[in-house]
Amino acid sequence: MAEKNEARIKWTAEQIKQGSRPEGRPFWEGTKEHKFLLPLGLDSRPFWYPRAYAPGTLEDVTWKESKGEGTVYSYSVHYIGPNGSFKGDPPHVVALVDLDEGVRVMTNLVKDEENFPSIGPDDVQIGQRVRVVYEVLSEDVTLPRFTPAD
Amino acid sequence: MSVREATPNVAEARRMLKKGIVIAGVGETEQGVLKDRGSFQLLAEATKLTLDDAGITLAEVDGVVTAFSFVEHTLMHATTLCDYLGFHPGYFASVAVGGATAPLMAVQAALAIDAGLAEVVLCVRGDNTRSGISSSGMIAQAREMTQGEFEWPYGVTTIGGYGLLAQRYMYEYNVPQEALAAVVATQSEHGALKWNAMLREPVTIEDVLNSRMIATPFHVLDCSLVNDGAAAFLVTTADRAKGMQTKPVYIAGIGEGYSHQYISQAKSVDSVRDGLGRAGRRAMEVAGITPQDLDVAEIYDSFSFTPLIALEGFGVCGKGEAGNWVLEGNAKLGGKLPMNTHGGLIRQAHLGAMHHIVEAALQLRGEADDSSRGGGNHQVPNAKWAITNGSGGILAATSALVLSSEPPSA
Description:
The complex is a heterodimer.
Chain A: H1 2-19, H2 25-32, E1 36-40, E2 62-66, E3 69-78, E4 92-99, E5 104-108, E6 129-136, E7 142-148
Antiparallel strand pairs in A: 1-2, 3-4, 3-6, 4-5, 6-7
Chain B: H1 10-18, E1 21-28, H2 39-54, E2 63-66, H3 77-85, E3 91-94, H4 101-114, E4 120-128, H5 129-132, H6 135-144, H7 158-173, H8 177-191, H9 205-210, E5 213-215, E6 218-219, E7 228-237, H10 238-241, E8 249-257, H11 269-287, E9 296-298, H12 306-313, H13 322-327, H14 344-347, H15 354-365, E10 385-391, E11 398-404
Parallel strand pairs in B: 2-3, 2-4, 9-10
Antiparallel strand pairs in B: 1-7, 1-8, 4-7, 5-6, 8-11, 10-11
């Protein structure tokens, strides 16, 4: 279990570093300080995922902190994963969460405990309220995930 | 964000297709685990079968449209194939829109013919995806379906990505797992009759529900196959097809549509249905028909859920009603609108939507009886109108064709 979790942490940090675009840097700088920053167009409407210009209008981008609270739009309990560190017991839950500020993000639903284990397949439902938690993957990368709100 | 739907110039699309753009030949290799055949070998084999079907030689082909390979990567897939085949046609293009590629290959061929760039266009796609792909190639393929920075790191899979929208759909319309399983059971009966289907044993709804869960709501039997194989079709003018030996099948309508690239950015079940549905609605509008006119539907079926939302988007069923529609038997051979009469990606093989187009053409030629080659009769009697589509990404970019056994009316 612990080994598997370490492998997942290592893999995830690598994927984020490899996949990162320059325009997403303010977001990843924010998560290190436990802030969930949302990109905004000039009309102050947040959008997701970060782009160099606001989608549709191509306005300049500013950033605003989200409260990190939202509602589960949907989820899929995964009994497989992109590599061995995800596969199997326990399954991981991939979810789409609608943040209260009006954007939808992909995430995992986890317990707010040491090592953030996945929540059980029976503990997730559409419409559930959730809040962000931050998992430090490495010195450079802190990953936001979500947990059921109290 | 302002979204403006492009005004489709239906009259212009009709003008092009009324000249008579036809599929004059089709070919499919065996499908499955074909360890001794490489990617380009399979493409060459499908090409030979298709030329033989039409009764022409390679020298008569003056245009080639290909797709891509997961195994033999090249930035110049079409001309790489031409070199392998040993000829130099005047027109060549590669199309890469994931599962939407095959119908778009037909569109590309039609446009090239209309523009006078070519007259006889070979459209061919295949790969040794099952035997030839490396594990890093497989992972790269899965990653491409997601947003690399903000989706992929959460361990999402292609299956689970579809699962996210499927579960929301099931929640909104109170659709039971049985409805998804009914798609598989229905198509398994059809696949049992297709000579080269990988899975020939019919399965029941219970079999699907009892199979291993992969990512909710999908069991292993809800998922499409991974295989080696190739298929091709030949696009030309009705005039040119008069010198060929097959009954030509007319491309009567074309359409495209999408609502998102990444599944986290899909606004709603409604927006997804409307976006991908536009492809089929537009294709029917160009053809001048309504869903009631359709005789057979070869609908992209990456997962059991995929055809349900397409059937609704195309207007065959109302919102949230496709599951019951399938459960009632309407999609079976002999039903109201037989669907995936070749077994589809779930039972026959997965080459994007290539097999869907080939099957639609065979249905409209009246040649969907594989009794003489170890399969069975899956012909829809007197089929005149077929719809077929492909979807790339996770319910994203979609392209559709309406095909007809008859020439367009003046």
